[in-house]
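User: Just a sanity check before I run the rest of the batch. Below are the structure tokens for the first item. I only need the designed sequence back.
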């Protein structure tokens, strides 16, 4: 499994892009940087898009990739509240065309698929388990397994309380929200985000449940406090003995 971080931040600039990762060149998870992070040739390879929730920074490039690729169908998977945001506010015939009907109902540019929490689905070479996470709007993280037994967990935007996500799975990598530094701990947990100290508590519970710690990759970073988060993550490494990396645009991880 090849994981490429197209966007690893919560704010966009010439150096940072919004949330989006790409698996093996064919499956995107969130779409904040799906077109800005890929060449036209690379966009042609994308077959599936998983959305964790309906916030704009996670769905933004869905209509953009559809606009460029109307000659084929891209499949979009999300829980119902996220699909409703997408169809009501972006691909609604006003802001962007209704790509679920264009160029034709028989062969639309986008085909939407409703996901149900805790109900696994097979999408291409991947088994996907959506699991609810704690955020300001209905949201899920994804446990993703490939045919070679490689397993990752992608949290999307999430706050504390992830114990239920670990039941029955043993991921080699977990990709986690780290939007705040420890000085904003209370601000982080309110709308459903994490800081390193809150993440550390989640990892302690993970180890208690699973008897090991996976590699942790932090994403959805705030550039203004990224250096603080990096130092606080180093302290977690010293305390817990696990591997913690900060994601960046263009970063690739191979499993």
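Assistant: Here's the designed sequence for the first item:
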């Amino acid at each position: 499994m090849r994981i490429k971080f197209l966007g690893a931040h919560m704010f966009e600039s010439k150096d940072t892009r919004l949330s989006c990762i790409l698996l093996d060149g064919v499956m995107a998870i969130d779409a904040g940087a799906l077109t800005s992070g890929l060449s036209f040739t690379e966009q042609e390879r994308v077959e599936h898009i998983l959305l964790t929730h309906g916030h704009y920074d996670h769905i933004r490039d869905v209509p953009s990739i559809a606009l460029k690729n109307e000659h084929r169908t891209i499949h979009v998977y999300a829980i119902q509240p996220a699909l409703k945001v997408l169809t009501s506010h972006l691909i609604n015939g006003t802001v962007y065309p209704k790509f679920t009907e264009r160029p034709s109902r028989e062969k639309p540019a986008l085909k939407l698929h409703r996901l149900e929490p805790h109900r696994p689905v097979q999408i291409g070479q991947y088994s996907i388990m959506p699991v609810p996470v704690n955020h300001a709007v209905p949201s899920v993280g994804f446990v993703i397994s490939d045919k070679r037994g490689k397993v990752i967990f992608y949290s999307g935007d999430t706050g504390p309380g992830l114990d239920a996500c670990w039941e029955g799975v043993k991921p080699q990598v977990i990709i986690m929200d780290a939007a705040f530094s420890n000085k904003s701990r209370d601000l982080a947990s309110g709308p459903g985000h994490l800081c390193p100290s809150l993440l550390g508590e989640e990892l302690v519970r993970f180890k208690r449940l699973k008897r090991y710690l996976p590699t942790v990759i932090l994403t959805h970073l705030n550039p203004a406090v990224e250096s603080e988060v990096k130092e606080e993550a180093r302290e977690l490494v010293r305390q817990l003995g696990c591997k913690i990396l900060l994601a960046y645009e263009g970063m690739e991880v191979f499993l």
